[in-house]
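Before a colleague's protein record goes any further, I have to sign it off. Would you go through it and say whether the fold makes sense for this chain? Take the sequence as given and treat only the tokens as open to question. The record follows directly below this note.
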Amino acid sequence: MKAGDTLYGICDKLDVTFKELKKMNPKITENSVIHIGDKFVTQQAVPLLTVRTVEVSTFAEKVKYKTVYKKSSSYYQGEQVVQRSGSNGKAKITARLVKENGKTVSRKDLNKEIIKEPISKIVLKGTKKVPPKKGTGQLQRPVAVGVYRGYGPRWGRWHYGLDYAAPTGTAIRAADGGTVISAGWSGAYGLRIMIDHGGNIKTLYAHCSAIYVSAGQQVYKGQTIAAVGSTGRSTGPHCHFEVFKNGSNVNPANYV
């Protein structure tokens, strides 16, 4: 490249289209920035003779798994839960291959033998009616496991919530309907969500690995709002859960 050159200017000089130039130089795009001294391939060797071969070959090939959707009244409408992960199978293929200059240009399968059956992925789609997106006055546990660390003194300071230990990715659900006040990173809390349920009750969910809601969004009781994680100051995957009444932190065990 020299001063004043452009990609389309090069195309004009060589009497080729941009598509043809890109085929010779796969890394360039229409928005590529070019510099003086850059080099481009402007010619490609064309074989004087096309060698065409026909062969019968046997090889292994992946058999992609299918995804099966099933209705479930255990989950709310709009929710999808993977009940079983899928895995690909394997097949032994015998095929007639036509090649030109070593590149396969056509294939006809003569025989296919399944060596390993694929396992279908099963996804449950919720059918349960979604509750109103407002507080009911009754809180539920955010994670369907028992508490492993309670409210009170811990390591010389006060622990202001309940900790629910669960594998990373486990669903964290809204303790009640309400409006998301904040959702994002919050220092030692890591990824954190706070919800206003009305009636001067607010809840907090911390150390999430992922957040599925945003500030201002209305949620219903039991809605999946985040996933268990170990972000922020944490010793392992868990959901740290706090409850606030009239602006003051209170023992969540008295409410769930």
Helices lie at 7-14, 18-24. The chain has a mean pLDDT of 90. The longest helix spans residues 7-14. Residues 52-128 form a domain with the Resuscitation-promoting factor rpfb fold fold (CATH 2.20.230.10).
